[in-house]
Amino acid sequence: MADPSSYRPKPGQIPDSPGVYRFRDDHRRVIYVGKAKSLRQRLANYFQDLAGLHPRTRTMVTTAASVEWTVVSTEVEALQLEYSWIKEYDPRFNVKYRDDKSYPFLAVTLNEEFPRVQVMRGAKKKGVRYFGPYGHAWAIRETVDLMLRVFPVRTCSTGVFKNAARTGRPCLLGYIGKCSAPCVGRVTPEEHRELAEEFCDFMAGRTGTYIRRLEQRMTDAAEEMEYEKAGRLRDDIGALRRAMEKNAVVLADATDADLIAVAEDELEAAVQIFHVRGGRVRGQRGWVTDKVEAVETAGLVEHALQQLYGEESGDAVPKEVLVPALPEDAEAVTQWLSERRGSQVSLRIPQRGDKKDLMATVGRNAQQSLVLHKTKRASDLTTRSRALEEIAEALGLDSAPLRIECFDISHLQGDDVVASMVVFEDGLARKGEYRRFQIKTFEGQDDVRSMHEVIGRRFRRYLQEKERTGEWPEQPEQPDDSEPAGPLDQPGREDDGRPKRFAYPPQLVVVDGGQPQVAAAKRALDELGIDDVAVCGLAKRLEEVWVPGESDPVVLPRSSEGLYLLQRVRDEAHRFAITYQRAKRAKRVRSSPLDDVPGLGESRKQSLIKHFGSVKKLRQATIDQICEVPGVGRKTAESVVVAFAKAAPAAPAVNTATGEIMEDNGGSTHD
Question: Where's the UvrC family homology region profile domain (predicted)?
Answer without folding.
Answer: 259-525
